[in-house]
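Working notes for the structural subgroup meeting. M.R. asked for a predicted model of this chain before we commit to crystallization trials. I am recording the input and output together here so anyone reviewing the notebook later can reproduce the run.

Input as submitted:
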Amino acid sequence: MNPTQAAATRSPVHETTLANGLKVLIQEVRTAPVVSFMVWYRVGSRNEASGITGISHLLEHMMFKGTPTYGKGEIARVLQRHGASFNAGTSLDYTCYYEVLASDRLEIAVELEADRMSNALIPEEEHRLEMTVVRSELERNEDNPHRAMFLELLAQSFKAHPYHWPTIGWRTDVEQITTEEIRAYYRTHYVPNNAVAVIVGDVDRAQGLALVERHFGGIPRGPEPPPVRVVEPPQTGERRFKIRKPGDTRYLVVGWRNPELAHEDNYALDVVGMILGHGRTSRLYRGLVETQLATEVDAANETAHDPFLLVAQATVAPDATLDQVEAALHREVELLRTQPVTPEELARAKRQVEASFVYSKDSIRSLAQQLGYFETVASYRYLDTYLEHLAAVGPDDVRRVAQAYLTEDTRTVGAYDPIPPTNGSHTE
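Returned structure, recorded in token form:
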């Protein structure tokens, strides 16, 4: 355990909610004179609707275009001048903005994010110019086989729920979103009662809270954003898809529906993902790579605010077929469903899950990332008991969740089966 992890283990998280509804989490970690400040908004592709898919991601881009205080490009210049690293990201369930900087510069980040929360300009001309960047991202998605496979997996696995569409949105929607729609979306979702502010690092919690109060406290509470009420209907049979594009490498992906992040079955499903597809000791590695059916394999229990997917994937070896790889993958899953795991295999998988959990706290920024993510998607208190629940997972739990979730009727199987490139075609 490195010094950051050790200090974080000892240091409590202090939780406060301001009068306007802003949740504030502060954790003192005095290992270096550095602090991370983050603002998490409970808005992502999950909150979108047909016709405006991709608007959360588009708004994230526009949040760097200035306020009455900070002109075009000035947000980045100010942060760079103060030696900060910074960025933003949009996902299924959230949009996050962060800065990591010297602890004596914390107020710069707090003041700037408060200004962005209430005063972003979102100029029409900047929207038009930014579309060049967004189109480039859309094209990269289309040209990446792994990304194309994952997006199609979501599109086939979810028919009603907004996890159906990509975070970046459908191109036809993104091209037609108006500037006024972005502004209305901003006014709806970028309100203090829909956000979490996180401070982790070399900070006195009273002083940190005072800074947040000073800059965010005057922002009025907004109306509660519209809730997401869509519930994905049960899947009642296997779904399949195939992607045919120029290229020379075949891929297989299988996704099984899993429960929402806060569900107690996810502790055992995290272990199942490790047993199936993490590292050279995993079932899929031994059953597919060592038998020369695949060159790479992976599996993981991917969780979200609402039920999501446990995903397994394989890169097909040149001399193998997609059918052979799929049959071998299903055999390994069936063995996990029908036969108990050995104590040694279970212990190794639990150590791997624990190591992954611990190393996700190896820096000031990643500590803040964990707190913000879990509070936004479920509750940061999930982190307090995660290792305790993991330790309690036994062989019966592994077999029970494998039997419950890794079924033929709840799986979606996808293949990337390229066509030979023609003259002048791009090879993936």
